[in-house]
Amino acid sequence: AQSVTQPDIHITVSEGASLELRCNYSYGATPYLFWYVQSPGQGLQLLLKYFSGDTLVQGIKGFEAEFKRSQSSFNLRKPSVHWSDAAEYFCAVGHNFGNEKLTFGTGTRLTIIP
Amino acid sequence: KAGVTQTPRYLIKTRGQQVTLSCSPISGHRSVSWYQQTPGQGLQFLFEYFSETQRNKGNFPGRFSGRQFSNSRSEMNVSTLELGDSALYLCASNKEGGRDEQFFGPGTRLTVL
Description:
The complex is a heterodimer.
Chain A: E1 3-5, E2 10-14, E3 19-21, E4 24-26, E5 32-38, E6 44-50, E7 56-58, E8 64-68, E9 73-78, E10 87-94, E11 102-104, E12 108-113
Parallel strand pairs in A: 2-12
Antiparallel strand pairs in A: 1-4, 3-9, 5-6, 5-10, 7-8, 8-9, 10-11, 10-12
Chain B: E1 5-7, E2 10-13, E3 19-24, E4 31-38, E5 42-50, E6 53-57, E7 64-68, E8 74-78, E9 87-94, E10 103-104, E11 108-112
Parallel strand pairs in B: 2-11
Antiparallel strand pairs in B: 1-3, 3-8, 4-5, 4-9, 5-6, 7-8, 9-10, 9-11
């Protein structure tokens, strides 16, 4: 069965520091991978997605992620975080070659300290 | 362009009642998916509708049902509510599914007492 693991429940970083959020997936075929962000009281916003091609994908808000098939990983990175990046981040894998049925990880809550 | 809207935003019900939640997708979008978000289980896929037909289904009991109308608006219904149904219910829409970007609504917070 498909699954997504986000091993870090909560991460705290200082403003201006770099960030890496981990995501590992289990999927039988070529995965379609996504990162979403959820701010308190809000729905989910797509940060970036990987379908095929270049394994380093750029997203919105200065985020990027790298697909590593050998490690079954799709880690999210940002070189310098801003206080507004505090939120919950979800990694997801899409089924049926698309994104209309997503399996999500349990999420990583990001706290930014001044 | 208006985003995905969900009504109501908050709802309080008691055990045994039934509830209907509504989702209006972005204009032109024909696929609507529903998710349940709880602290314990996280985000779980309920079902997806495309052109008034259920195209994908998650692992939820039959108490959870949905439908889609010809204007792509979708409703989900939960019958015989249980305490464990308390959750944030999110809907998402995209044009056709597949690789189209999916946009999420703000959710309906359901509390079952």
